[in-house]
Q: What sequence folds into this?
């Protein structure tokens, strides 16, 4: 049970600030983008990419699709290669590489295979995550590294800018310490396998271990593959008492510990959104 917390139906936390009290809410999470593929050489060689860039915040499903495309394989080939990839994942992952397909640019050679490429991504993640700064930071905050990666994946999805990542991390810590549900729309979207769609009240009642409106604590796995900035925020958040945040307009994310102030920020956001919608309709 929450203590001194308004009813769940009135609290919405979201990356882009699409918060609507009582009825509906919205969130924008990372969506698939074109994979930057660098090519060199003759016209024939130019049809074959030489590198594959994985952006921060992509889900494993997006990575699989990008690898299939880059290696000119039938859809689903990379996912099927998981069984033979022998990925060096932590025990808590139970074979699921979500969170450990580290975002970076990877070379593609003639003999590159999906399983070898996935193994390289996981090996890169292990080097980044198991080093002293991250591992020690996780321990300092009473987490293991896998939990830190899970938290970082939420931070990556929810923070509007890199500058906001630390504060988002502190909101997560503060809510966990107070026994409050995280209520992050990014986890709902992961459960529903979608991106950039509106999150309704019925969505927040779905039966899923990723429903952070109904279930306490972190989700069972990461919800995306975080970058280094999000990882650093997860293990070393700044001090603060924030419990709520909303992006009223681009570049203006407001964090507060006061629910009434949060409601005023939400009202301002709603007014901005309504004005934008009216302008769009008039232009159409």
A:
């Amino acid at each position: 049970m929450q203590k001194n917390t308004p009813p769940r139906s009135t609290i919405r936390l979201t990356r882009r600030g699409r918060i609507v009290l009582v009825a509906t809410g919205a969130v924008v999470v990372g969506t698939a983008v074109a994979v930057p593929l660098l090519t060199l050489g003759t016209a024939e060689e130019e049809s074959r990419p030489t590198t594959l860039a994985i952006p921060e915040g992509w889900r494993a499903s997006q990575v699989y699709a990008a690898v299939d495309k880059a290696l000119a394989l039938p859809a689903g080939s990379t996912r099927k290669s998981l069984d033979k990839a022998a990925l060096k994942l932590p025990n808590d992952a139970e074979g699921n590489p979500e969170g450990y397909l580290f975002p970076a640019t990877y070379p593609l050679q003639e003999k590159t295979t999906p399983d070898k490429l996935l193994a390289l991504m996981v090996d890169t993640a292990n080097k980044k995550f198991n080093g002293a700064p991250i591992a020690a930071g996780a321990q300092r905050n009473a987490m293991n590294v896998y939990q830190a990666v899970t938290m970082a994946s939420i931070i990556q999805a929810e923070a509007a800018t890199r500058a906001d990542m630390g504060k988002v991390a502190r909101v997560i810590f503060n809510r966990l310490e107070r026994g409050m549900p995280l209520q992050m729309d990014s986890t709902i979207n992961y459960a529903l396998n979608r991106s950039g769609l509106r999150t309704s009240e019925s969505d927040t009642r779905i039966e899923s271990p990723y429903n952070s409106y109904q279930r306490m604590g972190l989700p069972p796995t990461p919800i995306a593959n975080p970058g280094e900035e999000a990882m650093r925020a997860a293990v070393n958040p700044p001090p603060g008492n924030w419990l709520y945040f909303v992006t009223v307009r681009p570049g203006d994310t407001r964090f507060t510990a006061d629910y009434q102030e949060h409601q005023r920020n939400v009202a301002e956001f709603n007014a901005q959104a309504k004005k934008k919608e009216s302008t769009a309709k008039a232009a159409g």
